[in-house]
Amino acid sequence: MAREDYRESLTELRDGVESMAKTVLTQLRRALTSLEDGDEMVAHEVIDTDGAVNERYLDLEGDCIQLLALQQPVASDLRFVAASFKILTDLERIGDLATNLARYALADASGAFSKIDIHRIGDEVHNQVQAAIDAYVADDTDACRTINTRDDEIDALCQRASEAVVRELIAREASAWGVEQLLDDVSRVLLTIRDLERIGDHAVNIAARTHYMVENDPELIY
Amino acid sequence: MSQTDPIDATDEMNRTAEQTISTTDGETAEETRSEWVDYDTGGETKLAIKNLDVYYGDDHALKDVSMDIPEQSVTALIGPSGCGKSTFLRCLNRMNDRIRSASINGTVELDSEDIYQDGIDLVELRKRVGMVFQSPNPFPKSIRANVSYGPRKHGDIETGLLARLTGRADPESEEELVKRSLERAALWEEVSDRLEDNALGLSGGQQQRLCIARCLAVDPEIILMDEPASALDPIATSKIEDLIEDLAQDYTVVVVTHSMQQAARVSDQTAVFLTGGELVEYDNTEKIFEDPESQRVEDYISGKFG
Known about the structure:
Chain A: It comes from Natrialba aegyptia DSM 13077. The structure holds 2 protein chains of 2 kinds. By secondary structure, chain A is mostly helical.
C-alpha cells in the first residue's frame, strides 16, 4: 500500500486518542473515588495530573494539524482527522471537569447532602465516556446512537438529584447549620451534579463526531 | 486527418506509454461499468457524452463513458496515469482524430449536436472548443501576434483576409481584441507595455496565460485544459487556478489534472477515471473528496494505490 508513513501517522493518531482517553477515564474514576471516600491524596493526584493531560492534548492536536498541513487527507481520512481533532477537545474538557470534581472532594469534608446519589450518576457518565471512546476505536455507529439516547436518562438523573438537593434544603433545620457553610455545601453539590452532566454531554459529542466520521452524517452532532 | 501529420509521432509515444501502464493493471475490478456516474449536475448541459469507447489498435483506452458536462462551470477529470482522462479530453474536440490507430464509438453532443457526425467542420469545432496544454507552447512570435493569430486565421479581425472576403459586419479591431483577450487571461497588466516582445521571453506562468489568451481570442465556448499548471511553480499555479475559476463564469471549462488538491480547489464537479479507461465516479467535487461512493475512488484519492 502506498503512503505508508501517512497510514502509520493515522494509526498513531487513533492510538494517541485512545491512550489519552484512557488517562482521562482514569482521572475521572479517581475523582469519583475521592468524592466517594473523601480520599484527599487521590484528589490531589487527580489535580496534579491535569497538566500532563493538557500537554498530551496539545501534542495530539499538533499531530492533527501536521497531518492536515502535510498530507492533505481526503474522504474518510479527512473525516477521521477532523473528528479526532474535535474529540481531543472533548477529552481535554472531561479532564478539566474531573479536576473540578477532585476539588469539590477536597472541600466537602462535612458529608452534607449524603442522600444524593452522586456515585450512581458518576458511574453512569464514566460508562458513557468509556462507551464513546470504544465506539470511536471500533467505528461503531450503533453504539453512538445508544450513547446519544442514554444521555437523556443521565440528564433526568441529574435533574432529579438537583431537585432532591432543594427538597433536602427545605426540610433541613436552618439553625443546625451556619448559613455560610450551608450555601457552600449547596453550591458544591449542585456544581458536582452539573459537572457530571457536562461530562455526559462530552461523551455524546465524542459519539456524534464518531458517527460523522464513519457515516459522513452529522445527524447526532446537534 | 493528415497521414503525415508531424504530431503523430508524439502521439504514438504517448499511446505506447498509456498502453504500458494500463497493462500493469492488477486490481480486482468490482464492476466494469460503475453505478456512480449518473450524476445530475443540475446545470444546463453543454456537452453530453454517451457510451464513448476509444480504441488505440487493440487497446481499449476508454470504456463506455457517459457523462453530462454542464455549461459555465469547471469539470475536473482525475485519475492515475494511463486511465484515459487525457484521451477523454481529446475526444471533446476530436483531437484524437489525429491518431491513425484510434477508433472512436459513441457520441459527444455539443449543444445537442453530435460532433462526430459526418460533415462537421473541424476548424469551426476547435474554434468553439479551445484547448490549453500542459507545457506552455506560445508561437515564437510577438505577444501580440500570438493572441491575434487565431482571429486572423478565422477572419475575426478587420485585418484578416477572411473578414474582408466574408464581409463581417462589425469586425473587432486587433488592438481591442488583443487587449480584451489578455485582460481576460489576467496578463494584460504584466505585458501591456511590451506587446511586440517575443512571447518566448515571458516566464512559464506568463506563457501559459498567454496560451489561454490565445485560446480566448477566437471566442470559444468550451476550454479544455490538459494539466495546465503542472509545469508551473506554486505562484504561477495559483494565478492559473484563479483564472480557471474566473473563466467558468463565461465558459465551460474541463480540466485534466494530476493534482487532487487542484481538482478540489477549482472544480465544481469531478470525474474519477481509474486504470483501464473506466469512469468510476462522477459527482460534485465536495462529495467526491468528502465521501465518495466507490471504495476504489476512496483508495485512489487517499493515495492508498495509484
